[in-house]
């Protein structure tokens, strides 16, 4: 850290963003070697194959083209020989038209009232990205103004408690339900959709569905079968992975309903700016590439299995949960893209909380326990500045004091000698010693507008892709989520037959049988 040349070479600026990775445990030579590793793993070719629409998601035989979702109207991005950008813009134009109608009140509900509240039903990628962006924009002054009088809520969990929380205080007469599901088969989403359909029809009659329920899906046949008018369905495509779908109608529809399409367009532009940077910038200046390589360095070479995502911004409180899915569902794999067992571990355990909340929670472990590479994300200009007369600094400066202090505390630590000089008693010296040399990186955003939120999203999406490309895995499938779903089907069948015919649990191991029996005997769920 005392080598200014080294530090200077580890700072990168792009489109208002400043990345400082000088607190990584890497020398200039390390970076050269990581760039050689990128070359050896054919990173350039793999990125090109992604942008060219090749079927790089080989186990699902699909292209990976979320970059097309935010491409400018005149761009040409092909999947299976066809330019997909016009299709993308057809849907965006349809969203603009529909959201304008809802927001202006020209589209009304079954009883003639404007629809001012929206519940978006969806889970995983059909939930976390839109929730992150919504939470980030909620306090942006421009977004706040455009959302006046409107509410956007998200129903994800099949826990009926989540339904109760979502509908609490809402009136079906003034509520629009958006069912978001790539497959339109996800058990949680479909049961929640049926539950809210019941909520609407019980109050307003069956015909109200046409006015109060719309859908976002790749499976328009199932949307129609569910009873939603296909004219009120917003399509996306199999070349959009669920966790990469926030820039499709999955995010754009609910967010446009809440904030207006022009606000969401800014978000798409921010993401697109990073796409262009990622595609065309030499690796030594390419932010997602550098971040991806450093993550590979931390996981595979230094053996650190986790990564903490620490935004010093309450508006980014849902960023870590979103990146958990983007990163862990993408890179938590056990075999190479060719199906060979990997001789090393991939992916990292992502977690995080906004600073300074995390400081008063799990930072103890990060400072003196395990070594966890940290991403510190700071914002120059607060969305909601506060300055109290007589205080030493503004509230945002107070927050940012922590953003600047924590990386150095981790990097330098505190030695026993320093403690002795401070006359700390001998028995406390081991407890108060900080080993230091703990890696972090700092990303400073000029402000947190829709545009910056788009930038941040795309940086992390591409970083995860870079890691997967270097590790030689398929970051775009998710077979690991299937087994649990199959086993849940067996349990569902058992619960049904136990409730309807009183049959005892059968075909499960001792542990599950005991738990099921206890649940059935003591639960107050209605007998079907
Ligand atoms: O179970 C995991 C998963 O398939 C995710 O990959 C996906 O984002 C989520 O479920 C929701 O799927 P869908 O949008 O099809 O309802």
From TrEMBL:
Keywords: Cytoplasm, Gluconeogenesis, Glycolysis, Isomerase. Homodimer. It is found in: Cytoplasm. Pfam families: PGI. It catalyses: alpha-D-glucose 6-phosphate = beta-D-fructose 6-phosphate. The gene is MJB21.12. GO terms for cellular component: cytoplasm. One of its GO terms (biological process) is gluconeogenesis. It comes from the Eukaryota. This is Glucose-6-phosphate isomerase. GO terms for molecular function: carbohydrate derivative binding; glucose-6-phosphate isomerase activity. Pathway: Carbohydrate degradation; glycolysis; D-glyceraldehyde 3-phosphate and glycerone phosphate from D-glucose: step 2/4. The keyword Disulfide bond does not apply. Belongs to the GPI family. It comes from Arabidopsis thaliana (Mouse-ear cress). Its EC number is 5.3.1.9. PANTHER family: GLUCOSE-6-PHOSPHATE ISOMERASE. Its main location: cytoplasm. It is an enzyme of class 5 (isomerase).
